[in-house]
Each structure stands twice: as structure tokens, then as C-alpha cells.
Amino acid sequence: MRNCCHECPKPLAIRARWRVLARSAGPTHMNPLEAAWQAALAAEQQAAFGYGLLGPQLSGAARQLAVACSRAHQTLIEQSALAQSAAGLVPVAPQADYPTLYPVPGPRAARALAVRLETECASAWRYLYAVAASAPRRAEAPARRAQAQEALIGSAVRAARWRDSSVPFPGI
Amino acid sequence: MRDDMRPESTDHPAAAHHRSTPSRRTVLATGALCVAAAGAGVGAGVVATRSAPRARSDAEATLRAAVAAERALITAAERAMVTALDAAAHPAASLRPLLRQVRADHIAHLAALQAALVLAGGGPNPAPSRPVATNRAPLRTLEQRAAARAAARAALLDGRDAVLLASIAACEASHAQLLS
């Protein structure tokens, strides 16, 4: 696998990995559980992109928090994509751009965007949980519920850190 | 017309009848077999339809009991959390807004869980827990445990109750984070 340059070897590697994942799984008709899983992955991809936008607007501890959050989302993206591929699905590809996330003019906007990204991720994972909880007879439902619960908690905790307060029902 | 070219219908009617019609003994034996087979089928069906609902109702009763017990525990846990927050004696001024927020969240959880209980046909309301004096660190531990318990209970339920508990677990985990 080639690297695009010395400074940023990862983007090309990730793109190549996506291509491999997309090729390895054939086209399938998605059931609601699979569609919700893909939507959660798409929300995570948007969050990872969004942290790239908002990170440069922050400094100090807030910037460190943004880096940590970005890493958490990247990990979740990789895990979800691999799990979907193993399940015979084609993981949804990240968009080239997310115009609705712009502009991020300063630190306050950056924090607000971080809260929004985490809130949307929490909603997506809560939805996956709801779909899985409504289809308890599906063999894959318990695994999806466990994954969705963990991711929902992760997003709720990150949102609370950015907001410096909590909401009673994250994702709802 | 040659014999081998003659259709069978040109045979003698009595002979043809004798060839195509089974004997009385065969008819009786087949009839008896059919009746026996039908009876066995119906019997098996009756046994199946009687035992399946029994097994289903047993499982349902077990699940209902488990759900009721879980809901009672959840409500008790929520009340304990609220009581513990009320009992937090003179917390640092900076902690007060956070405790107020945490308390408000737990009251919202309690209301939602009680509404879920009513929707499900009602259950015994657990007695309020004894007040527990607490401060930041024990409260954080309490929240962490509550989050884990809520997530575990959510996994035992289905549908909207499960989603409610999953969300409550996430909220309690965020409380633990804010209290750290």
C-alpha cells in the first residue's frame, strides 16, 4: 500500500481499506437493523470529519479533548466497518464533504459543533438500539444492542464533557 | 380392428369395473387407516396447541415477574439516587449547580419509569430508600454503578422500556464523568 506523503500516510491507507471492505462484501438488501447500523456508522463518519473542522479553533485542554474525541470516533468507525464487512454488509462510505457543518468561526462555535456531533451520534446509536430491541428474535440483535449501548454511553459522556452538563435522556 | 389396437373401454363393462374398483376389504382397510391417521393428526395437533400456549404462558409469566422485579429495583435505585443527592450536606458551592442538574435528571428518570410502569398495567411501588449522606466521590461511584445496572437491565427488556433504560444508563454515565 502506498502512502500519499510523509506527513499524512494515514488518509490513503484508510481510503484503500474502505475500497477493500467495499469490494469484499457483495450488494445486499438491508433490513431495518442493518440500515440503522449503517446510519450509526454514517453519523460516526460525520463526527470524525467534524472534529477535523473544529479542532483547529480550540486550544489547550479543549483541543486535547477534541483530539481524544476524534480518536474515539475513528476507532468506532474502524470497528463498525470491520464488523459490518464480517456480517456481509458493504459499510457505507464516508462523504467527501459535510457542508452542513460549516462554518466554524471560533472556539464557541467549535464547542457547539462538538455538542451537535455527539448528540447526533447518540441519536443514531439510540435508534440502532431501539430497532434491535424491537427485533429480539433476530440472532444479531443482542450484539447490536451491546454495541449501540456502549456507543450511546460514549457519545453521551463526550457531549457532557463539551456541554459541562448532562441531559436526562441522551439520544432521545 | 386388431385386438392390440382396441381401446380398453371396449372391454366388457363388468370386467373393466372389476379391474378398476378396489375390493370391499381394501376400501374398508383404507378407510380405517385414513380415520386412524386423521385421528392421530388431530390428536397430535391438540397436544401441540395445548402444550405450546402453556409453555408460552410460563415463559411470559417468568418474563413478567422478572420485568416487574427489575422495574421495582430501577425505581428504588432512582429514588435512592434522588435521596442521596438531597442528603448531600452542604456541598461546595461550585458543585451545587451540578448536583441540581443530576437531581433533576434523576427525577425525570423516575417520572419516565413510573409512567412506563403505569403503561404496563402497574406494579407495586417500592418503598422509598433510606436517605444516604454522600459527597462527590461516593456519588460518582453510585452513578457509575447505576449506569452499569441500568444498561444490564435494559438488556433484559425489549422495545421502548429497553430504550428508555439504555438512555438512562448513558445519562448516569455522563453524571459519573461530570462528578470526576
Descriptive account of the structure:
The complex is a heterodimer of chains A (172) and B (180). With 172 residues, chain A is mostly helical. In chain A, helix 2 runs antiparallel to helix 3 (60-86), helix 2 packs antiparallel against helix 4 (107-133) and helix 4 runs antiparallel to helix 5. The longest helix of chain A has 27 residues, at 60-86. Chain A is built from five helices and no strands. Chain A has helices spanning 10-24, 32-54, 60-86, 107-133, 141-163. Chain B is an all-alpha fold and 180 residues long. Chain B is 76% helix and 0% strand. Chain B is built from five helices and no strands. In chain B, helix 2 (24-87) runs antiparallel to helix 3. Chain B is elongated. Chain B starts with 12 loop residues before the first helix and ends with a helix. Chain A binds chain B through residues 122, 126, 129-130, 133-134, 136, 142, 145-146, 148-149, 152-153, 155-157, 159-161, 164-172, and chain B through 98, 101-102, 104-105, 108-109, 112, 147, 151, 154-155, 157-160, 162-164, 166-171, 173-175, 177-178.
According to DSSP, the number of beta strands of chain A is 0
The general outline of chain A is: globular
Structural class of chain B: mainly alpha
The assigned structural class of chain A equals mainly alpha
Short account of what is shown:
The complex is a heterodimer of chains A (172) and B (180). By secondary structure, chain A is mainly alpha-helical. Chain A has helices at 10-24, 32-54, 60-86, 107-133, 141-163.
Jot down its keywords.
heterodimer; A: 172 residues; mainly alpha; 0% strand; globular; B: 180 residues; 5 helices; disordered N terminus
Topology:
The complex is a heterodimer of chains A (172) and B (180).
Chain A: H1 10-24, H2 32-54, H3 60-86, H4 107-133, H5 141-163
Chain B: H1 13-20, H2 24-87, H3 96-119, H4 136-156, H5 159-178
Helix pairs in contact in B: 2-3, 2-4, 3-5, 4-5
